[in-house]
User: Fold this.
Amino acid sequence: MLGKDITNFYCMDCLADYLECTVEDLLEKIEEFKEEGCVLFK
Assistant:
């Protein structure tokens, strides 16, 4: 979600806060990426 070359890693709660969304929003987006064939979320 933040790119391939990131240097800061976040837990789901902190990432949701950083992106100003909910953990549920993140999980839904991850599933969308997986369905599109994204290999970053295996």
About this structure: The mean pLDDT is 90. Residues 4 and 40 are 8 Å apart (CA to CA). The first helix runs from residue 12 to 19. Residues 9-42 form one domain.
